[in-house]
Amino acid sequence: MRFRTCIAEKSARRHRRLQGEVHRVRTLYFTAGSLAEPGYQDLMSKPPVLVHPQLGLFELQLANAYEVIHWPTNRTDITAAITIGSKGLTNAMIDALPALKTIVCFGVGTDGLDAAYCKQRGVQISYGPNINNEDVADIAMGLIIATARGFTLGERTLREGKWIPPMPIPPQKRLRGRKLGIVGMGAIGQAIAARAAPFGLEIKWTGPRAKPDIAYGYEPDLVALASWADILTLCPRADKTTEGMVSAKVIEALDDDGILVNVSRGSVVDEAALIAALKAGKLAAAGLDVFEEEPTPVSRWADVPNTTLLPHIGGHTSAALFMGAQNVMENLRRHFANEPLLTPLPSAASLAQ
Fold it and tell me: Domain 46-131+320-351 adopts which CATH fold?
């Protein structure tokens, strides 16, 4: 009898301990500290971060350390946001986030942000310099070769069963000896020049200011550079100062033998003027990785000849995406640790290319 009583008491004690443990875990899980002991909330909660636009699988990595918030939101406690340069956050969105202190851009672009307004609001911006410049330069060089040597026309001829020997497409001009004008001699422009020189292209460039350390000839006037060049490649920083810089006048200066390649942003080109010139035969060809509207409507290009078009893949390599993600995570960590950002956006003057 005494033995059975002892067993029953031990069982009751184990049951009480188990109930107490279940109650503690449930309290921590369901209240996340709001009804538990002081300090639990700090341990259980994650700081909120606005992500706009949504960034797919990258958000799974973010969610390990942060509460991922999407727009629209009525949260007023968000101090950090992540965006991509071409999309950005509008001034109205920034105004709706009273606690916002840092915007982290995934990639080098910041053209979707009003940097002056952010500065006025006390919001710092970080970006991703020297992460995908080599990859974008690869695409630029590929588009130069593809347009100059008729790759797209050649493939279409083959696929449509129109390969008639001995000359399936009109003869193309040799690349070696042609003149390449580069608009914007920053990291991407220099990487393009490094690829183009071994192909035997003569190189000149333009930008807001001359750079003594650049060996290639500097032409301060864009129209003059277009008039000189056989191929004009665009890689300037995209912002309000470069919007529409490649106008109908610049395209006309390239002449009917000229080629336009754009790996910057669609906003730097008067796209309607470009399409009109191609249709009228006033421009030989265009290679585009970026567009005025993205995704660009298929119908817009259906009857536009002599084009090689890509869906904005310039910086989309696994290496660049990994480095970009690491850059974003480190800038976020520094923001929440009250440390200086790893890659703060420099002033407009120092960004000039």
Answer: Rossmann fold (3.40.50)
